[in-house]
From TrEMBL:
CDD domains registered for this protein in UniProt: PBP2_TMBP
Keyword Signal: yes
Taxonomic superkingdom: Bacteria
Organism: Acuticoccus mangrovi
Compartments, as annotated in UniProt: Periplasm
Source lineage: Bacteria, Pseudomonadati, Pseudomonadota, Alphaproteobacteria, Hyphomicrobiales
Family: Belongs to the bacterial solute-binding protein 1 family.
Protein name (database record): ABC transporter substrate-binding protein
Keyword ATP-binding in annotation: no
Gene Ontology cellular-component terms listed: periplasmic space
UniProt keyword annotations, A-Z: Periplasm, Signal, Transport
């Protein structure tokens, strides 16, 4: 309902700025303190330039956000000047975004070049990264210490430790504690989690860079079957409706030993309002017996609508929001990973956010968005829906892999 109500407001309103200065409209995220950060930074730019910025919080559900964007873009009225887009969307919405190279081509050289390449479609730079991140493992350091356990390096170690602590703590009266929480709702977040499980077990990337559909293989099936076996054991069935924030709420309330999430949660978990403040650790995600552990590459980018009446000012706003100064502040105050490699060597940032490794040392797994292009959203929806069915007990891992493979082969034949 949130996405629909926002969409209705956007499509019905007639925003108009002062003729003496530009009015730029900006779509902001709203996960954690993301919207407050976005709005404050935009207002700072407005105060410096004399322009006006209208900011709007977008749905946290990425599929709903994309649907909203498409509705606004289809209208072609420029009611949103600057879109905040997922790292997997440049090829999906690129036709509706201007080429930023004439405005920010030089600045783009200061960002991680793999992301700049990701954001370049048919030779045009469609977006500049506002921040980047990857999936991480958050854990209760106090509970691991209490039970004499190390931070798990493999998923099997995680399951064993989660089960031990869950049983021990429940025996002492904490009946709400579960071993692991993650993003299990049927949406893009589940795609990210399941890709990490499969890739870390040597099961591939769902679709490989050359376009080969590889989801239906023994290692991918084994990885999915393993996680399905955790449901009701160390994972609460409630995760089937969890996104990033519901996952954080459960962990922050003290109801989980381990959590898979993005780095933005670090600041919130250690706030005075958190029940686990000071007791949280963060580490790379575990691996499987085969394959290579890695977090799904995440992050959000800023692009300008082709229908914008103020493309110069909109691009200038993006330059400000993605500047070194703002990325450093965002990392220190809210744990958002910079997309500027030099910031990882900044002494002040290193002291404030010491868990962030140098970007050169990060291990990523990429979603197959570049390979599948405009079909990516359909690819992800097919994948997450079938994984959700598996975790819900409505199918088995082998059948899920076969079903996904068949659907993706059909999409491949018609769309990429």
């Amino acid at each position: 309902m949130l996405g629909l109500s926002i969409a209705g407001g956007l499509l019905a309103s007639g925003w108009g700025g002062d003729a003496r200065a530009a009015t730029v409209t900006l779509a902001c995220g709203a996960v954690g303190i993301e919207y407050e950060d976005c709005r404050a930074a935009a207002e700072e730019w407005g105060a410096q330039t004399g322009n006006t910025v209208l900011t709007f919080p977008m749905p946290n559900n990425s599929a709903k956000r994309l649907d909203l964007y498409r509705a606004v873009m289809a209208e072609g009225t420029g009611k949103i000047d600057v879109f905040l887009i997922d790292v997997v969307w440049p090829a999906v919405v690129g036709d509706d975004l201007i080429d930023l190279r004439p405005y920010l081509g030089e600045a783009a050289k200061d960002h991680v070049q793999e992301i700049i390449e990701n954001n370049t479609v048919d030779g045009e730079l469609k977006a500049i990264p506002m921040f980047m991140d990857a999936g991480y493992l958050l854990y209760r350091r106090d509970l691991l210490d209490k039970y004499g356990r190390e931070v798990p390096k493999t998923w099997d170690e995680l399951a064993d430790t989660a089960r031990l602590i869950q049983e021990g703590e429940r025996g002492e009266g904490n009946t709400e504690l579960w071993g692991l929480v993650f993003q299990g709702r049927d949406y893009e977040g589940l795609t990210c989690n399941a890709l990490e499980w499969i890739y870390s077990h040597g099961g591939g990337r769902i679709v490989e860079p050359d376009g080969t559909v590889t989801i239906n293989n023994p290692r991918a099936v084994a990885a999915l079957d393993k996680v399905a076996g955790w449901m009701g054991d160390i994972v609460s069935p409630d995760v089937l409706d969890y996104d990033e924030e519901e996952t954080r709420y459960a962990f922050q309330a003290g109801n989980a030993v381990f959590m898979r999430n993005w780095p933005y949660v670090w600041t919130l978990l250690n706030s005075p309002l958190s029940a686990v403040s000071g007791d949280v650790g963060i580490a790379p995600l575990p691996g499987g017996s085969e394959g290579h552990a890695a977090g799904t590459l995440g992050g959000w980018q800023l692009g300008v609508s082709k229908a914008s009446a103020n493309p110069k000012e909109a691009a200038d706003l993006i330059g400000f929001l993605t500047s070194r100064k703002l990325q450093k502040e965002r990392a220190i105050e809210a744990s958002y990973g910079p997309s500027r490699p030099d910031l990882y060597r900044d002494p002040e940032l290193q002291a404030a956010v010491d868990f962030l490794p140098d970007v050169a040392d990060l291990d990523f797994v990429y979603r197959p968005s570049t390979t599948t292009g405009t079909a990516y959203n359909a690819v992800s929806q097919v994948f997450s829906a079938e994984v959700h069915a598996l975790l819900s007990g409505r199918t088995d891992a082998a059948t899920a892999a076969q079903t996904i493979e068949g659907a993706l082969e059909e999409l491949k034949a018609g769309a990429w």
